[in-house]
Amino acid sequence: MSERTDIPADSSEIPVDPAHPPVTPGSYLLELIPVPVSDIDRAKAFYTYQAGFVCDVDVSPAEGVRIVQLTPPGSYCSISLTTGLVQMAMEPGSQRGLHLVVKDIEAARQELIGRGVEVSGTEDLGGVFYAWFADPDGNTWALQHMPWRP
Q1: At residue 144, does pLDDT exceed 80?
Q2: Could you tell me whether strands 129-134 and 123-124 are parallel, antiparallel, or unpaired per DSSP bridges?
Q3: What angle do CA 104, 29, 140 make, to 5 degrees?
Q4: How far apart are CA 150 and CA 141, in angstroms?
Q5: pLDDT single digits (tens) 105-139
Q6: How far apart are CA 126 and CA 137, in angstroms?
Q7: Euclidean distance between CA atoms 11 and 5, whole angstroms
Q8: pTM of the prediction?
């Protein structure tokens, strides 16, 4: 995967994205969760081609540093795959139970299965439905369906 993001020379070159909510005083928006992987290119391929995430950023801002940011369809929260940042260092495969809330869990399961992702059967855990899958390093994800949500 060789597509990389050009790093702007100046912040004035970065356009405002009206699709994202504004950061208002007092807000603490959770928008990026690190996912530890052993091979960024392999993980990027899994998340984009198999899980259907959008690659927003792929940069190497300094020698030995790489940051890839991917967003699940419809989400305001993204994941980051990084190397060379001690502040983000975790054991590959150690992230557990990240939730992707879906409207139709069976349709979401079938979409992922159709792209080659191994997804568990659906479990009813007290009226909330779950199906589980993992990335190539073993980081685990849950599809979650709450029938009462519009």
Answers
A1: yes
A2: antiparallel
A3: 45
A4: 22
A5: 999 999 999 999 999 999 999 999 999 999 999 99
A6: 30
A7: 14
A8: 0.86
Side-chain-side CA neighbours of residue 133 (13 Å): 21
Q: How many Cβ atoms from other residues are within 10 Å of residue 121's Cβ?
A: 8
Instruction: Name which of 91, 90, 108 is nearest 99 in CA terms.
Output: 108
Determine which helix (DSSP H) or strand (DSSP E) holds 21, and give its type and residue range.
none
Number of helices (H), then strands (E), in the chain: 2, 8
Instruction: Quick: pLDDT tens for 87-113.
Output: 999 999 999 999 999 999 999 999 999
Mark residue 100 as left, alpha or beta (left: phi above 0; alpha: psi -120 to 50; beta: remaining).
beta
DSSP symbols for 95-143: ---EEEE-S-HHHHHHHHHHTT---PPPEESSS-EEEEEE-TT--EEEE
CA distance 39 to 92: 9
* Identity of the residue numbered 99: H
